Amino acid sequence: MAKVILKRVSGDYGFDTVNENGTVVKMDSNPEMGGTEYGARPMQLLLNALAGCASIDVISILKKQRQEIKDYSVTVTGEREAGVEPSLWKEIQMVFEITGNVEEGKAQRAVEISLNKYCSVAVTLVKAGATIQTNVIVRNA
Question: Domain total for the chain?
């Protein structure tokens, strides 16, 4: 069972969360609510989690296919529902940039498999009503 402990450490809304491995994640509210930019906002962390979850899958799939990745990044942007509470993620865009000796078709397929089959974060967001669009850019080097 996963376990996270949250402790208020900075102002009203600056928190450190620590998991069972001792990894610390800093969190805060937005400035309009009194946050001080101490850490990421909880909803931003969902996008972080999506990028990380998908990336672990994509890199693992490509390595199994003997694709050589020299550089890798993902940019995630999202738009939340306006004027409602709770304000869920509505539209999410992910741009995967992969450099190396990688076949474009394999990279595209790895992203598709991750988001539709393996990445629990992606499936959770989609079940909550979000749409996830992707763009995969492969640069051979």
Answer: 2
Give yes or no: residues 26 and 55 share one domain. Answer: no
pTM (two decimals): 0.94
**Within this chain, do residues 52 and 27 fall inside the same structural domain, yes or no?**
no
pLDDT above 90 (res 141): no
| Three-state secondary structure call for residue 28 | coil
Peptide bond into 31 cis (omega under 30): no
Q: Which domain holds residue 132?
A: 42-140
76 with 26, same domain: the answer is no
95 contacts 50 by C-beta, under 8 angstroms: no
Q: Model confidence over 47-97: pLDDT tens digits?
A: 999 999 999 999 999 999 999 999 999 999 999 999 999 999 999 999 999
Q: Which two tokens stand for residue 128?
A: 């909550």
| Residues ≥6 apart with Cβ < 8 Å to 23 | none
Q: Are 75 and 45 in contact (CB under 8 A)?
A: no
Q: Answer yes or no: are the C-beta atoms of 96 and 48 closer than 8 Å.
A: no
Sequence-ordered strand ranges (E) for the chain: 4-10, 14-19, 24-27, 68-80, 89-101, 131-140
For residues 56 and 125, membership in a common domain is answered with yes
